[in-house]
Amino acid sequence: MALRLSAHLVEGQIRYTIPEEMTVGSFVGNIGTDLGLQPKRLVSGKARVFTAGGSEYIGLDSEKGHLIVKERIDREQLCGDLSACSISFNVILENPMELFRINVDILDINDNSPVFPRGEKEIEISEAALPGARFSLDSAIDPDVGINTLQTYMLHPTDHFKLNIQSRADGSKNVEMVLQTALDREKKTNHYLTLTAVDGGKPQRSGTAKIHILVLDANDNAPVFSQSSYKTSVIENAIKGTLVTTVSATDADESSHNIQYYFEDPSAAVKALFAIDSESGEVRVTGEIDYEKHKQFKIKVTAKDHGGLIDSSEILIDVTDVNDNTPKITIMSFSSALPEDAGLGTVVAMINIQDFDSGDNGRVMCSIDRDLPFKIVSSLTNDYSLVTDSTLDREQIQEYNITITAVDGGSPSLSSKEIITLKISDVNDHAPQFEKKTYDAYVLENNSPSVSIISVKAEDADWGPNARVSYFIDDGSLNGDPLASYISINSDSGVIYAVKSFDFEQLKSFKIQVKAQDGGSPPLSSNTTLNIFIQDQNDNAPQILYPVQTSSSVVAEMVPRSADVGYLVNKVVAVDVDSGQNAWLSYKLQKATDRALFEVGAQNGEIRTVRQVTDKDAVKHRLTVVVEDNGQPSRSATVIVNVAVADSFPEVISEFTNFNHDTTYSDNLTFYLIMALAVVSVLFIFSLIAIISVKIYRWRQNRLFYKSAPNLPVIPYYPPVYADGTLQRVYNYEMCGTTDSRMSDIKFVRPYSQNTLVNMSRAGTVQREKTEQEEDADLSLEVRNSFTVLAFTCIHCTVTVFSPMSSYEI
């Protein structure tokens, strides 16, 4: 049954029982079924077996969830003479970590026969030995346990001897041969017996030993030990030569001082660790005693006199444990990296600690430093888990060196340490943070596209892809256009560029939202506000608002001759669409007919008289005023102010009639006049050709018509609109004008009327003659007027006025 201790740690125990000596690959149990684990969980969790001792007798088929025998299991080799034998191991799963304790009990089978230390033994017995004398025999060894171990002995033949079997407190059996009838050396010197040891297994197994009895001459008394069993103890790691115990035996014969002591069929361990003095019976340490290997020794000792009579006793030596083993720390499972958002109780490592000492010497305490966000939790016997005890933050601490300390309860205590390095893996838990909440950027107008404006930067406390910051501009519009048409941003560096050239007069400032987004999943982002201010450049010249300049007329300001000093003549008003110092305007008088008479206010543009006007001052004055801004470099505009110094208007008109002809036009005006003259000339040539062609054509048509007129009948003709027979009166005017309207003139030409009707023949004759004359006159007139248009831009038009009484030709 599994016991869940936390959300991330599952601990439990399950027990299986199998016999020893199973073949490799044999089925032990199905932990998938017994622990409720799905096969895919075993595969994804990388299920594996961990054994503290290092030897893995049991393996795991993670795909099926089956425990199988991995190595041959010999219970006698594994557990010795212990009746209860089991092996324990852990099954570990990861992601998340889970720990299961598996115990497998090993059942004994009767696979060992009783075996005597020696196959043949020789015993010397005096013929004087009395019935009832006892002779110790070698005990057979059967490593099996329970019913399968040694059960009884049998002796054959039994004519002189019988067996005496004694059970010891530990369950073992001591066998002795007891003399039933006296021996006679003279009759039979040698006796051969067979000792059989039988176990209780099925099938039953047995072992035999040969006993050779040599009958000696009379020796009345056998040695007798002072104790039937000697019990003592020795500490492990006792130095060589340490006295363990002393055995002694007495003999009623006078030669009791000739008793010899020796170990009877000692094991290899006894031979290596202990020795007995054959004369004094002292047992001393001769090797390195290790409690973890041998906790107790049973040594059979024999005392023999010179006559060959013997007695046997047993020495029981308990080894006292000394705290000579440091705890052994084994990391069963360890996650070298842990995400920083791991919850409380998340398993970091599974630890197994073994101390082969016993009692308090083997009782272990496991701990780590207290200032770490982890703790040690005891899960199963000798097993511990390192789990998280508080929240982790990689941005504060990226790596932990955790020292695991195991201390036993001995005096003095022994300890061991194991250092593991745990890296905290990053989780995208921090959004990028801009260095400023608001950025201000300034860019000069008329900038070139793609110019760098500013660089924004955001830092992300995360690591790796989670800290890779990309920059974006939030969607939006400005003046109906998307922001992307104004600026762009490098997504990697955060450098912001201008997409177009800015004009301060149209756009002075705007703001955008810049977003910084990391590369985590899901991504985190933050915003900052960027205020972009367009800085003015002196790219606009001042504009004159007043006085208004026209090319078709001259405006003059009249100043009376009685004007005092400071008389306000006019005020020049100008504006500059730039801003700041680029729009600071100053006025100055560039040229003047008389500089001593007028001045211009540098700040307000007011034109005032400097002195009293006199009669000697000219009537007309031309002032050129320059308006200049304060930019670098500065820009300027000029205005011409005409001033008339006079007391009456007619005087002003007469003076300014030809004023315009003295004017020096600017280069641009001259260029436009030349272009206009060229265009008019071309048009005139084409018009002249067209007029001449039309006139010639009409003249020829009229001559053909009048030549055929006498053959036509005379029909009186009346205009259709006028009932009284009156004809339209035509007025002829000729108007010629130059580019200057003051030089234009107009004259009236030939008013006439027709009040009578004539017959068609007379009218035709008169009309034909008149037509011919008029055609010639008109042709010459039009040619003359056409040349006049070339020189003076003359305008020739005919106005027909319908009147009941008269008509005029213009």
What is the helix fraction of residues, given as a range?
A: 10-25%
The CATH superfamily label of the largest domain reads Cadherins
Q: Helical stretch count?
A: 7
Overall number of domains: 6
Strands of the widest sheet, in order across it, are: 1-2-8-7-4
CATH architecture classification of the largest domain: Sandwich
Kindly, what is the distance between the CA atoms of the first and last residues, rounded to a whole number of angstroms? 130 Å
Subcellular location: Cell membrane
Protein name: Protocadherin gamma-A3-like
GO biological process, one term: homophilic cell adhesion via plasma membrane adhesion molecules
Function: Potential calcium-dependent cell-adhesion protein. May be involved in the establishment and maintenance of specific neuronal connections in the brain.
Overview of the structural elements:
This protein is mainly beta and 810 residues long. It has six domains: 14-106, Cadherins (Immunoglobulin-like, Sandwich), CATH 2.60.40; 120-216, Cadherins (Immunoglobulin-like, Sandwich), CATH 2.60.40; 224-320, Immunoglobulin-like, CATH 2.60.40.60; 328-425, Cadherins (Immunoglobulin-like, Sandwich); 433-535, Cadherins (Immunoglobulin-like, Sandwich), CATH 2.60.40; 543-655, Immunoglobulin-like (Sandwich). It has seven helices and 56 strands. It has a five-stranded mixed beta sheet with strand order 1-2-8-7-4. Helix 6 packs antiparallel against helix 7 (760-792). The model is unreliable at 1-11, 660-665 and 712-810 (pLDDT under 50). This is Protocadherin gamma-A3-like. One of its GO terms (biological process) is homophilic cell adhesion via plasma membrane adhesion molecules. The chain crosses the membrane at residues 669-697.
